[in-house]
Amino acid sequence: MSLPGADVRHTAATTASPILDARIARADVPTVYSRLAPLYDVWAGFTEAKARRACLEAAAIRDGQDVLEVAVGTGLTFAEILRRNPHGRSTGVDVTPPMLARARQRAERTAPPGARWELARGDAYALAFPDASFDVVVNNYMFDLLPEKDFPAVVAELARVLRPGGRLVLVNMTRDARGANAFEWLYRLSPALMGGCRGVFLEPAVRAAGFGDVHRTLVVQWGVPSEVLAAVKPSEAA
Description:
Helix 5 links the parallel strand 3 (89-94) and strand 4. The relative contact order is 0.20. Helix 4 (76-84) runs parallel beside helix 5. Strands 1-7-8-6-5-2-3-4 form an 8-stranded mixed beta sheet. By secondary structure, the chain is an alpha/beta fold. The longest helix is centred in the middle third of the chain and has 14 residues, at 97-110. It has one domain (6-12, 29-232): Rossmann fold (3-Layer(aba) Sandwich). The protein has helices at 29-36, 40-47, 49-59, 76-84, 97-110, 151-161, 184-189, 203-208; strands spanning 6-10, 66-70, 89-94, 116-121, 134-140, 162-173, 212-221, 224-232. 31% of the residues lie in helices and 25% in strands.
């Protein structure tokens, strides 16, 4: 089912203009998102719902898998992961306690009976999990906060906890086929108005990390372009 104002198409990344610098310090992200937590679901409903739905389809979660969501926010995607994985293990992490509290409340309301799930504070730069712990790793609207120079290290950390043959799905604000993002003028005026998010392109970092079967989908909802990037970690044999 399509959402009003949404457009979905498969496309290659457009990098004609440089990615804007990240202007919210990593240490300040929890403070910014603590303020945004009560309003986040409204913004997400208008601009992110279609891309989050595409994320879940690209993740192709099979019941019984070990699934990790990094940067769960208020749990919008995590609740759907629980519905799709009632007999597996679903884990979510975030750096912002008020966001985690909302995610936990949502999970408690929506989790199927007997579902195994955990939500905890965690940092994408250093995940507290052993190597090759998960079959699927998903991440929504986090890299568009981070400095571009950090993309390779964070992608490598997500790859570390993913099993060989596992699927990685990343969703972020990006730019459309013309290299445009109408909301970036707000970011230039005040990054906090956009939650620190600006248009990014993750495909080069994902390919450089050795992932294969990389597919990028552009989703535009109410004028906000998002990229849904799905990739597979090569098997050890490969």
